[in-house]
Amino acid sequence: xxxxxxxxxxxAELAELINRVVYGGERVVVTRHGKPLxxxxxxxxxxxxxxxxxxxxxxxxxxxxxxxxxxxxTSAGSVTPAPPERQRFGIAAEHRGxxxx
Length: 101
Description:
The protein is α+β, with helices and mostly antiparallel strands. It has 4 helices and 3 strands, in the order βααββαα.
């Protein structure tokens, strides 16, 4: 749980608050009119938060790429196998020319 303090009091106690964060491992939330304004966290906490944000962003990018791949593969449609006589003679494909639209 973070320690909350009004901004007016935080101004007067900034050095003490920094010590609480750095040496006491606390997190301090500075409020204005009872609403969170900013937070004081250690540099180690900030690094962890930034790492989590980067990991979340990388996961989101990977998810979008996966959705595009699935969409592309799905839109390719199904392939019809060659008729049995073509398979019997080892012919796997035939040229059909451009489709009429």
